[in-house]
Amino acid sequence: MPSMLIRRSAMPGFNLAMGITVTMLSVIVILPIMALLMRGLVWGPAEIWATVSSERVRGALFLSFRLSVLAALFNLVFGVMLAWILVRYRFPGKRLIDAAVDLPFALPTAVAGIALTTLYAPNGLFGGIAADMGLRIAYTQAGIFVALVFVGLPFVTRTVQPVIAEIEHEVEEASASLGASRLTTLRRVILPMLMPAALTGFALALARSVGEYGSVIFIAGNIPNRTEIAPLLIVIRLEEFNYNAAAAIGIAMLLISFLMLFAINLIQIWSRRRIGYV
Amino acid sequence: MKLAKNILYMALPLAMAAVPSLASAQSLLNVSYDPTREFYREYNAAFEAHWKAEGHGPVRLESSHGGSGSQARAVIDGLDAQVVTLALAGDIDAIANATDKIPADWQSRLPHGSAPYTSTIVFLVREGNPKGIRDWGDLVQDGVEVITPNPKTSGAARWSYLAAWAWAERNGQDPAGFVGNLYKHVPVLDSGARGSTTTFTQRGIGDVLLAWENEAWLALDELGDDQFDIVVPSMSILAEPSVALVEGNADDEAQHALAAEYLQYLYSPEAQALAMKNYYRAWDASAADPEDVARLPALDLVTIADFGGWAKAQPEHFGDGGTFDQIYTAR
Predict the structure, then answer these.
(1) % of chain A residues with pLDDT over 70
(2) B238 vs chain A: nearest CA distance in angstroms?
């Protein structure tokens, strides 16, 4: 029976491929995470809790996760919209915009951070307009949000695009011929089909935002309890040679991220059960 | 077998990257702090000429710059620097404590406590000083925004912090209260001095920048003295950036000798003149341009010794739970 656990595929080379996969995964992903957890284990859970529950660390963690969720939600809505436009409509410059969606992947985050700061600082192009209205974007939480939206933008669009391309016009026409209004078609037919892919994109964008450091430190004010993100606090702890506290914050972020991604997966499973695979 | 072969192929690039480059020229990496970029660029050229004139072969001198604390951490984590020239002795102490690459008595191995040049903290304000900032006390006026980096990561910020502390003490104010109030006027905490200078000069944030004296002059040079003014407060602190040889990172005798001479030459009249040209307060003015010397006004300066040395001041003010941490926890 045990041999039945692994279903034989027509493709050869399973053992080799599996070996390489496990080795690479261990070296690149599992080992560093184990090292982090070991560091925390050696230090002791009580100390970790004491570090993580201090006001400043709690503030940084809350800020990081709250803004990441907000940025990912923003990207969820506008990413789906962007994907829809790119797949369903023809307009001049479409390929250019399609290519531009990937730019946040390619651009070094520090470059993005500095460029965004230049634009949104009070003497910058957009920051100046905001300043006239009495608003400050760069060096506030709004600035962090802008940076996180930027780095997370491609994820939703790129995961949803192929799904939209698969949806045939006939489905919408059938819905309409059965008397559904356009809104009902969107709500009951289109969106459920997009849900799983959009959620995957949302999870990816969220994960990316939580870990983002390079672009945010330029546009955030880095003031403790106000504009200090958790990854920056980790770096600050390292620079104080406080490796244990840095590991503690890292473990806290790991756990929260894991729980959040787990929850998103549950929602995905639930939505697949409800509407079936697309 | 196939698997072993595959792993071998995968490991090959890694192994190749690990083999040190077998360049023939001797090399030296100087890990320094933020505002010394311009000085060490010139010094490296001068030292290279000096080294060749002494009959040695070609050298490849490299400098790395960043927040002093981050740079120290990079060396602790294994950055292969033969020489460290950091913003304060405390950061070199940290390397000496965390690794055995620097001997504990490093500070007594070179003249002037291993500080070949010194500097101080002054104020850089916008042209015409619209907020009328003259002294430390003016920094906490309503509506004044102060730009200074994070003392946890920046050397300049630690010197500024202590200078403000000393001013409050001398003027009969509660130093912790005054400094705490000062940091309430700080809208952006960059990680290094250069970042703060950029925030102040390029992004237009803040009314006053607490800056290294050399950094303030540099800002005037680079950006034009019609945009900013330097304000020298009634008193400040003698900032002693320190240098040390990282013995544990010298590959061989030859590199050790190169590193030792690199540091020793900093005390030569030529190098001291170069430091003054770059707005540092050096010790030996014999070869310096009198104009460069005259630019740096005599000033009432407290020293780190007044705070009991870095071994005491570092944990007391900037350690975990120190006076700086209390500013952001007690609200």
Answers:
(1) 95
(2) 23
| Contact yes or no for A216/A147 (Cβ under 8 A) | yes
Same domain, yes or no, for B168 and B316?
yes
pLDDT digits (tens, 9 = 90+) for B76-116: 988 999 999 999 898 999 999 999 999 999 999 999 999 99
Task: With CB atoms and an 8 Å threshold, state whether B69 touches A245.
Answer: no
Q: Could you give the CA distance from residue A208 to residue A156 in angstroms, rounded to a whole number?
A: 12
Within an 8 Å CB–CB cutoff, is residue B252 touching chain A?
no
Cβ pair A239:B203 closer than 8 A: no
Taking CA–CA distances from B319, the nearest residue in chain A reads A240
Q: What is the CATH number of the domain that holds B69?
A: 3.40.190.10
Q: Supply A249's token pair.
A: 């914050």
- Does residue B93 sit in the same domain as residue B186? no
Contact: B204, A224; criterion CB under 8 Å: no
Q: What is the mean pLDDT of residues B174-178?
A: 94
Asked if B199 and B304 sit in the same domain, the reply is: yes
Choose, out of B3, B203, B227, B326, the residue to mutate when testing the contact with A (most A CBs < 10 Å). B203
**B residues 105-144 closer than 8 Å to A (CB):** none
CATH class of this structure's domain A30-275: mainly alpha
Quote the tokens at residue A193: 């089909």
Q: Would the CB atoms of A123 and B204 count as touching at under 8 Å?
A: yes
Residue A253, C-beta contacts closer than 8 angstroms, at least 6 positions apart: A61, A64, A210, A211, A230, A231, A234
Q: What is the pLDDT of residue B15?
A: 45
Contacts of A123 in chain B (CB under 8 A): 203-204
Q: Residues 143 to 162 of B: which have CB under 8 A from any A CB?
A: 150, 152-153
B329 touches chain A (CB under 8 A): yes
> Which residues between 85 and 104 in chain A have a beta carbon less than 8 angstroms from any beta carbon of chain B?
none
The alpha carbon of residue A26 is apart from the nearest alpha carbon of chain B, in Å, by: 13
Q: Does B79 touch chain A (CB under 8 A)?
A: no
Q: In Å, what is the CA distance from B203 to each residue of A21, A107, B141, B177, B206?
A: 47, 22, 22, 29, 9
Cβ within 8 Å of residue A59, ≥6 positions away: A224, A225, A226, A228
Distance from CA of B193 to the nearest CA of A (A): 14
* pLDDT tens for each residue of B195-254: 899 899 988 889 999 999 999 998 888 887 789 999 999 999 999 999 999 999 998 999
Number of domains comprising chain B? 2
Domain spans of chain A? Answer: 30-275
> Is the separation of the CB atoms in A175 and A182 below 8 Å?
no
- The secondary structure of B133-183 as a DSSP string is --SGGGGGSTT--EE---TTT-HHHHHHHHHHHHHHHHTTS-HHHHHHHHH
What is the model's pTM?
0.79
The residue range of the domain holding B135 is 121-238+299-329
- Angstrom CA distances, A38 to A43, A205, A232, A245, B185, stand at 8, 28, 22, 13, 41
The verdict on a CB contact (< 8 Å) between A56 and B76 is no
Same domain, B215 and B319: yes
The overall average pLDDT reported for chain B is: 88
Do B128 and B114 lie in one domain? The reply is no
Task: Point out the least confidently predicted range of A37-46, A269-278, B302-311.
Answer: A269-278
Backbone angles phi, psi at B70, to 5 degrees: -65, -40
Q: Do A221 and B189 touch (CB under 8 A)?
A: yes
Q: Give residue for tokens 């009495």.
A: A134
